[in-house]
Amino acid sequence: MRAVLPLSVALALGLLVFAASSFTPLGGVLALALGGLGGAGVYAWQARLVRGGLGPAARERLAFKEAWRRGGRLTPEDLAPFLPEAEARALLEDLCRRGFCRREGEGYRFDEARKR
User: Fold this and answer.
1) Which of 24, 40, 46, 115 is the most buried (most CB within 10 A)?
2) For residue 79, what is the DSSP state?
3) Exposed / middle / buried, residue 101 (Cβ in 10 Å: 0-12, 13-18, 19+)
4) Residue ranges of the alpha helices (H) in the chain?
5) Integer angstrom CA distances of residue 108 from 38, 41, 50, 57, 68
């Protein structure tokens, strides 16, 4: 699934160059080369983004959305598909310390924790 965007860019760029060169054989070779370079560039960019992981704001939004989906109560195990458990626990503790939620047993309650 990760290869869909780079392949799409390579195909679109290749077809654009090939059409701009009036469908000549030299244009086909140029289109293949530029399409391959464009696809490789997008693949490298996408791999860098994936390796970087989620930023702090994105992790917080993820926790809020998951809490909303689960009725306002969230445990670190609920964030397991997205974050390692230690990171999830640290994130929830930070949100609790800042007043966005309160600790309730093994989980955290997000309802009415902070009124503006």
Assistant:
1) 46
2) G
3) buried
4) 4-20, 25-52, 56-69, 85-97
5) 46, 42, 28, 19, 12
**Cα–Cα distances in Å, from 10 out to 13, 59, 93, 106, 112?**
5, 32, 44, 49, 49
Among the ranges given (8-12, 50-54, 81-85), the one the predictor scored with the smallest mean pLDDT: 50-54
Q: Among 83, 20, 14, which Cα is nearest to 42's?
A: 14
Alpha carbon distance 45, 39 (integer Å):
10
Judge if 66 and 105 occupy the same domain: yes
- What is the C-alpha separation between 94 and 104, in angstroms, rounded? 15
The answer to whether the pTM exceeds 0.70 is no
Whether 115 is covered by a domain: the verdict is: no
Start-to-end C-alpha separation, the chain: 42
pLDDT at residue number 112? 63
Domain count, the chain: 2
98-102 CB contacts, 8 Å cutoff, 24+ apart: 100/64, 101/67, 101/74
